[in-house]
Each structure stands twice: as structure tokens, then as C-alpha cells.
Amino acid sequence: MTISFPRQQRSNYLAFLTKLPWTWRITWAYLIVMLLIPVLAMFVKASSEPLPRFWQVVTSPVALAAYDVTFTTSLVTALFNGVFGTLIAWVLVRYDFPLKRLVDASVDLPFALPTAVAGLTLANVYSDVGWIGSLFAPLGIKISFTRLGVGIAMTFISLPFVVRTVQPVLQEMEKDIEEAAWCLGASPGQTFWKVIFPPIMPAVLTGVALGFSRAVGEFGSTVIISSNTPYKDLIAPVLIFQRLEQYDLSAATAIGVVLLMISLVLLLTINLLQAWGRRYDAS
Amino acid sequence: MHHSSNSQGGKLFPPVILIKIAIAYLRKIPPSAILTALAIAYLALILYIPAANVFYQAFKKGVGPFLSNLTRPDFLHAAWLTVTLAAIAVPLNTVFGLCAAWAVTRHKFPGRAFFLSIIDLPFSISPVVAGLMLVLLYGRQGWFGGWLADHGINVIFAFPGMVLATAFVSMPFVAREVIPVLEDLGNEQEQAAQTLGANDWQIFWRVTLPNIRWGLLYGLILTNARAMGEFGAVSVVSGNIADKTQSLPLFVEDAYKQYESEAAFSAAVLLALLAVVTLVLKEILERKTRIEDK
């Protein structure tokens, strides 16, 4: 691979590089070594596979079942957190109650608590003999070591995203618009759906997308609370890990590329959602 | 037939009254109290009960067994390794974060939003995929694997790989916390210092750093928490060998898998305390920046 610039252009290019401030040089050097080369290596390795073999690995029944567990469970928990996260943000912004500051600070716990610890304690609490799991066991509902447990772990790690994106929007919202709606005879339901919900919707969606993206990639807490049984509660990151343990590098790479592409699409979606939210701001 | 159905109706009657009474009572409670109770109940199920359980499980047989778990040699090695990993990854990411934040806020260039997304990438990439990328680069069959093997350097299943994985996952925090502060600040003060003859270092130490110190500190704390707590990426590249390449989160999982759940919870308490310290410092820093804003 040779790239040849016309001489004039090349010297311009070199001059540009040497004039670049050193902060830029450090930034780019670090980004290239730490991030861009690894991402590139991943795509190059995946593209070196013959396409039929790649397709076969990516759409194998085990992989399809793992995508189903990962994406369906992440989506359901992200939406669930969308509802409860909005509720928590609302309660924190609008109401006063004892220990409110402590509750507010504790919402960030899933960001700060290492995921292995989260997985360990959630598996314990939601097991058949655990504090919460033992309440569900007589009803025939097993939580730890099933897909439901994976969902609980995903709920835990994606909880702060919705709260922390909706909270500032609610804080800035003027209460008088709501009061005006009441004065004009709107019911509480109408006030919520027609006055409060539209401005916070971009924030709710952004939070849901962030939580979904985090839940899809999550490994530490989900690997511990799941039984990691194929077709049952095996998630895609764990499938990659298992393929690596079997020294099947090409299969791990193929599934890894699928996961990476989905992360990139989600990142793009989140950026677009945030741009939409800002436009709402300006109007 | 008629008789029995009548008596059944009679049996159903009291519960209906009870439900009606309950609804009547619920209506008297202000909606704010109901919503608050719902929110707290949700947080309790997902956060508070599991968090309390960490401490309960670690101390349920008393402080003695807890302490004896914390003096095991494999635990001590894991703790030391975790501290070392953070001690390398945090400064690296701080230098990068400061440079990136400076570059992004002090220069106008096309594709700025795109650049910011690139900085955020490590957050959206699954930790397992991050680890896999490092294996593809530095592993035996990887791009640099042959060269490294010729020179007798082990990266994968060894300490350097763990450093790379830790630095990767905690990369964006400093940049993300410092960029908004630098943006709010503007560069008038820096330009003033420049006109008065200050050089780049003087401007950074005397003008910029004092202004961004709380944001920077917050970014440092978050980087440190993630670096010490990372599990997925590190477990892919470490090989998880006790006493050698096992960090504290890996120790927690390993002990749990070996049915030594007391040892697992004892180590988990330390990591949970790290989380609590992180949250407390975060709260303090947020309050400080809020006061300075006013």
C-alpha cells in the first residue's frame, strides 16, 4: 500500500504536522495507539475471514439465541428504567422528603460500584435463598441464574442513565406552564402527557438509549448472575469470552464485530437524540 | 347450585369491602407520597437491599473471619495489583484527557462533534470486545504478537495487557469532565496572560489549572473508580492466574466460583467502600463547583 502525494502537497502536509501544537500530537498519538489501531485490527481480522464462514458463525443458532437474550433483555430493562427513572427524577426534582440528598447521591452508585461486586450481591440477593429471591421462590419464579436475573443485573447498571439525563431537563422546566394547564381545566393526566412529557421526551429517549447501549455490552455483573447456558441465558459478550477460551479467535472476532457495529450505531443514535434534545432547548 | 353460588358471593363480599376501604384510604394520601414511595421501593429493590447485602454477607460471622480473609496472600496480591493498575492508567488518561480537552476547546476545526464521539467510543464498546481487540493486536497470532514474542515480551495474559485494558476502559472520563469547564471558562484569561508575556506552561499552571481544578479532580476520581473496578476487559487479557494476574474484581469472581463466598464478599466490601468514597467526593466536588458558579 503506497500513498503518494504530489510533492507540493506532501510538503504542505509535513509542514502542517510539524506546526501542530503538542497537545494535539499527544491526543492523536494516544487515540491512535489506544483506540483506533485496536478497532482497525478488529475489522481487518474480521474481513480476512471468508465471507461464508463469517456469516455462518454470526448467524449460528447459538449466536442468534445469544443476541436474542442480550438485545431483548436489554431493551425491556432499558424501557423499564425509562419509566422508573423518569419517576425517580420527578420525585427528586419536585418533592421534598427526609434523606433526599442521600437518595439523590445514591442513584450514581451503579456508576461507581465495580460490576463484579454488583453481580455477586445481586446473584446472592435474588437467589432462591436470598433476601428477595426467597420471596419469589414459593411462586415458582427463579431469578438468579436465569434470564430474569440477567435482566435484574442490566436494570441495576443502566439505572442512573435515565435519571441523570431527565433530572436537569425537569429542573429547568418552569412550573407556571403546568399551573396554566391546570387553570385551563386540564386533568393531571392531560397535564402530564401534553405539557410535561413532550419537552422531557428527548431526554428520556437519550437515557433509554444510553442504558440500552451499556446493558448490551455489560459483562461483569451479567456473567456472575447468569448460568451462562446456551439458548437459555447466555449473553453475547459471554459467548465471545467462551469462544476465546476455546482459542476460537475467528469466531470470537466475528461475533465481536457484530457487537462493535451495534455499539457504533447506538452511539450515532444517541448523538442524534442529543442534538434533537438541544434543538428543543433552543425553541 | 343457586344456593352454593349465593354463598360464594357472600364469601367474596368482605374482600371487596376491604379493597374499597383501601382505595378510599389511598385517595386520601397525596400523590406525592405515593410516587415517592414507589421510587424509593424501586431503588430499594435494585440498589439498597443488594448494597446492604454486601456488608451483611461479609460481616455475618463477625469481624474476625472478615479480617482473616483480608490477610490471605492471594487477596493481598490482587489488591496490590489493582492499586498498581490504577496508578499507571490514571496519570496516562489524565495527560490524554487534558490534552484532548484543550485541543477541542481552544481550536476551531471541522468535524469537532465527530472527534468528541471518538473520545466517547470506549464507553460504548463492550469491555469484552475491548479485551478482544487487545488480543488481536498483542496476542500470539496478533499484529504485534510475532515481534513481541521475538523480543521475549508478554503482553497478553500478563501485566502490560492488563494496563492497556484498564487504560482503554477509563480513557474518556477526564476529557469529558474538563471539556465543559474549559468551554464555560472561555480563553480571555489565557489570552490576557499571553499578552502579559506568560509562556504556555505558566499559562497552564497559573491560569487554566486553578480554574478547572474541581472538574479535573472529579474526572480523576471517576477514572480511578473505573480503573480499580474494571472486570470484563481485564479478565479477557489477564488469564486470571491467582497471585499473578488477578486484580481485585477478578479475585471477587474467582472466590465466588470456588464457593468461597465469604472471601468474595470480604473483597467486595473493599470495592464497595471505594464506590462510597467516590460518591462522597463527587458530592463534595459538585457542591464546590456550584458555590463557585454563584
Describe the model:
The complex is a heterodimer of chains A (283) and B (294). With 283 residues, chain A is mainly alpha-helical. Chain A folds into 2 domains: 1-48, no CATH class; 50-282, MetI-like (MetI-like fold), CATH 1.10.3720. Chain A is built from 14 helices and no strands. The relative contact order of chain A is 0.13. The model of chain A has no long low-confidence stretch (mean pLDDT 90). Mean pLDDT of chain B is 89; it is low at 1-10. Chain B is globular and about 85 Å long. Chain B has 294 residues and is mainly α. Chains A and B meet through helix 2, helix 4, helix 5, helix 6 and helix 7 of A and helix 2, helix 4, helix 5, helix 6 and helix 8 of B. Chain B: The chain crosses the membrane at residues 33-56, 77-103, 115-139, 151-175, 263-281.
Percentage beta strand of chain B: under 5%
Name the average pLDDT of chain A. 90
CATH superfamily of the largest domain in chain A: MetI-like
Instruction: Please state the second-level CATH architecture of the largest domain in chain B.
Output: Orthogonal Bundle
The fold-level CATH name of the largest domain in chain A is: MetI-like fold
Terminal CA distance of chain A reads 50 Å
The low-pLDDT segments of chain B are 1-10
Helix coverage percent of chain A: over 70%
| Strand composition percent of chain A | under 5%
Q: Give the biggest sheet of chain A.
A: none
Which second-level CATH architecture of the largest domain in chain A applies? Orthogonal Bundle
Question: Got a strand count of chain A?
Answer: 0
Helix-strand category of chain A: mainly alpha
